[in-house]
Amino acid sequence: MATLNTFLRQALAAGVLAAVSFSAHAELPKRSFCIFDPIGANGPLFNVMKSAKPAALKWGVELEMRAYTDEKIAAEDFKAGQCDSVLLTGTRARDFNKFTGSLEAMGAIQSDAQMKMLLQTLSGPKAAKLMRSGDYEVAGILPAGAIYLFTRDRSIDTVEELQGKKVATLDYDQASLTMVRKVGASVVGASSANFAGKFNNGSVDIAYAPAVAYTPLELYKGTQPNGGVFNYKIAQMNFQIIIRPDRFPEGYGQKSRE
Fold first, then answer.
1. Are residues 166 and 94 in the same domain?
2. Could you count the other beta carbons within 10 Å of the beta carbon of residue 65?
3. In three state form, how does the secondary structure of 170-236 look?
4. Predicted TM-score of the model (pTM)
């Protein structure tokens, strides 16, 4: 009988704790998190971002995640207030923070070690003021690796040979537009949603992307049979989490960066 009573008391206590925990989570404010992933809800970026949900609960927010395959639409929805936070590439994030948007500048960061050191510095409290710009705050920067040139013609091995070649160029990135024109190549406007398709179907001769995009975006289709990848890092790509700090608890952005 004593054992039964003990069991009942333990079961009751567990039930109370579970109810309290459920009630606490139910009362947390819900905030939308719009995530750009070219693959969609089954893509690697979206899956990585799922790990943010448990941490956000500890910081007082329940994240409602939505996948976007078109980065432009994700950014526009965020601007329009339809998203409380968003995950974008560093180049697209430039619209919300010019300082962190400069991290993808060509030639700015030349190695993984430099990128690691920079991110460690920017995640500290002393850099917090640099993470705020107007109504926005950078709540995290995720390295995505070096960016390389992919070509359909491996015989190209000098800058001069780029003249006249069609390059898939992000039409919202002024630096890229300037660089392509500077070497005498032809700009073919593209976005993160369609540059791979243009390269793979032969609409352009050259595209640039991080190495991790090779398999999921099937860039090998564009490099076969006579193409290749230039063994030179032209920049370091990153993804950035941008939030509207007034929609989150005080200190949320700093906790997220750390």
1. no
2. 16
3. ECCCHHHHHHHHHCCCEEEEECCCCHHHHHHCCCCCEEEEEHHHCCCCCCHHHHCCCCEECCCCCEE
4. 0.85
